[in-house]
Amino acid sequence: MVLPYELPDDEYVEFWQQEEYVGFIAPAAPEPDNINGLYTEKGELVRSKSEKIIADKLFMMKIPYHYEKPLKLDSYGYVHPDFTVLNR
Description:
two-stranded antiparallel ribbon, 2 helices
């Protein structure tokens, strides 16, 4: 009998957080509600004040997340949810 190899939780979180992806890229001309640029405590540029608040709370509570990471849905294609949170 073969047992599957699973990474310990802390190693899995580190691996998940280091996955590279292309998320939100600031437009050449800022949107009206993003004139000054809204940066999170983690240093990410987000689109709205609400997203900044959510990102800052997740970061403060040490909850691993990705901002606008592409997600492929079967028979639909790619979507960009605002936040993808690790739930292991």
